[in-house]
UniProtKB/TrEMBL annotation:
The lineage of its organism: Bacteria, Pseudomonadati, Pseudomonadota, Betaproteobacteria, Neisseriales. It holds the Pfam family TrmO_C. The keyword Ion transport does not apply. PROSITE patterns: TSAA_1, TSAA_2. It comes from the Bacteria. PANTHER family: TRNA (ADENINE(37)-N6)-METHYLTRANSFERASE (PTHR12818:SF0). This is tRNA (N6-threonylcarbamoyladenosine(37)-N6)-methyltransferase TrmO. Belongs to the tRNA methyltransferase O family. The keyword S-adenosyl-L-methionine applies. Keywords: S-adenosyl-L-methionine. InterPro entries: TrmO-like_N, TrmO_C, UPF0066_cons_site, YaeB-like, YaeB-like_sf, YaeB_N_sf. Residues 5-144 form the TsaA-like domain. It comes from Chitiniphilus shinanonensis.
Length: 229
């Protein structure tokens, strides 16, 4: 037996590439996602009462990993060398390619169809969203739960900016007031591969329409430049 899933819409996010996306939701609060619901789901009554909730679950499809799955994976949190079962991980390479993300609900706009704005997204631009459910704290918050190998908050990097990058950010502040905060939140999570340890290597990450070049010495991410992608 098979099942068909139709997207409610496709999430617009600051992440045109998979590299640089936070590995979990809500690690980069300034990462905003905008979802315009497609017909026939774009009726205001379909989201009536949703604005009363602060957070929602987004069910989505790992569309860039479709039809590819592995019984074991190597999570970055374990250094990229230790294998665990795919069902003991949050890897995108899953039998059915479905994901679940808890995000902040920032706005519900029903003036022209339905447009939802979220904060703390961890999805690539264009991700198909297949369901939205409100987060219910009393039932879904479990403070005593065990987190296995991903228990505890990951260590973060300090983030600094070269004069050229700082000047570009200052020039863009009027049009993109949250850009610096987003860069800091994304790079603080250290998006490098687990095996990367060359402090001279220059990395590139794209956010919105900008190409950010940076280096990392293991404790600090230093932004070198900020160019139009």
């Amino acid at each position: 037996m098979s099942y068909r899933l139709d997207p409610l819409g496709h999430l617009a996010t600051p992440f045109p590439d998979k590299f640089g996306i936070p590995r979990q939701p809500r690690l980069a609060p300034h990462a905003r996602g905008v979802l315009r619901l497609l017909p026939p789901y774009d009726r205001p009554e379909a989201v009536r009462g949703l604005e009363a909730f602060s957070h929602v679950w987004l069910s989505f499809v790992f569309h860039q990993s479709a039809d590819t799955w592995h019984p074991t994976v190597r999570p970055p949190r374990l250094g990229g060398n230790t294998r665990v079962g795919v069902f003991a991980s949050r890897s995108p390479f899953r039998p059915n390619g479905l994901g679940l993300s808890l995000v902040e609900l920032l706005a519900v706009d029903t003036r022209d169809g339905v447009v939802l704005t979220f904060g703390g997204v961890d999805l690539v631009d264009g991700t198909p969203i297949v369901d939205i459910k409100p987060y219910v704290p009393f039932a879904e918050s479990v403070p005593e739960a065990r987190g296995g190998f991903i228990d505890g908050t990951p260590a973060t990097l300090a983030v600094s900016f070269a004069p050229e990058a700082a000047a570009r950010l200052a020039a863009l502040a009027g049009e993109h007031p949250a850009l610096q905060a987003l860069i800091e939140e994304v790079l603080a999570q250290d998006p490098r591969p687990a095996y990367a340890d060359d402090p001279a290597r220059v990395y590139g990450v794209r956010l919105h329409t900008f190409d950010i070049k940076w280096r990392c010495d293991g404790t600090r991410a230093h932004v070198l430049s900020l160019d139009d992608a």
